[in-house]
Amino acid sequence: MKIVITGAKGQLGTQLINIIKAGKSEIGSIDERYKDSEIVGIDIEDLDISNLDDVVDFINKEKPDIIINPAAYTNVDACESNEDLAYKVNSLGARNLAIAAENLGIKLVHVSTDYVFEGNGVKPYKEYDMPGPVGVYGKTKYLGESFIREFCSKHFIVRTAWLYGYYGNNFVKTIMKAAKERQELQVVDDQRGNPTNAEDLAHHILKIALTQEYGVYHCTGEGECSWYDFASKIVELSNIECIVSPCDSEQYKRAAKRPAYSSLDNMMLRCTVGNEMREWEEALKEFIQKVKL
């Protein structure tokens, strides 16, 4: 089996490659069919996914069985001032991979985001709830989803949120570093979502990719919290002496509006391949025990 993974140097791409090579994740073993599989990890310097001809030529040459696409322009604030770049990567990149995959009947797993929702809900969004993104990042990611539905019949769209992993920068590492350097931190408590360990997400991506259970998935840590709750738990589990205080979003003027409530419900996982996503506190505890800053 051959697998192409985009964004291979990012925190999710790296996690996917390491789990495939190890044959297991923190959740458990992965399918034996991944053993001895050929992994083609690519990043921006290897392939510009926004160029259709290059993508088609590359996929025609490699002829993988599965394409996994974590690649994205994820700087939410920068997307507001770099709309063309966000569109090229998040929308056209997804479209191009979908076209190339369909040409050869290849399965495509595309990673999306909770930001496709408006974020004004009061209960976790299910896969059948209608998206309504408010910022450029969410809009370009949602258009990418739409292109994949239109152009690739064998697709899995996997929405996740508040992702952190062992590789690259993320909220958990930022809070741990800041807490060691300062006596007090202020973190917003009026935005709620699901912290998600990249280990758990990667495990489930690899699980669904071998099936024919095509469609849209929500794949986040179980349970929800505010960013303040998340930061407080990070500091507590890290045994760092630091006071974490709540504040509201108005104190932090950002270019892009953040969803106030964007928790996701992993309904598709429960109803198909099984939901093994850990409670967010459990997954965070293991992460902090193992992470190296």
From TrEMBL:
Gene Ontology MF term list: dTDP-4-dehydrorhamnose reductase activity
InterPro entries linked: dTDP_dehydrorham_reduct, NAD(P)-bd_dom_sf, RmlD-like-bd
Gene3D superfamilies reported for this sequence: NAD(P)-binding Rossmann-like Domain, UDP-galactose 4-epimerase, domain 1
Domain RmlD-like substrate binding: residue ranges: 1-291
Family, as annotated: Belongs to the dTDP-4-dehydrorhamnose reductase family.
Name recorded for this polypeptide: dTDP-4-dehydrorhamnose reductase
Top enzyme category: oxidoreductase
Organism: Clostridium grantii DSM 8605
Keywords of the record: NADP, Oxidoreductase
Superkingdom of the source species: Bacteria
One Gene Ontology biological process: dTDP-rhamnose biosynthetic process
GO cellular component terms, A-Z: cytosol
Job description of the protein: Catalyzes the reduction of dTDP-6-deoxy-L-lyxo-4-hexulose to yield dTDP-L-rhamnose.
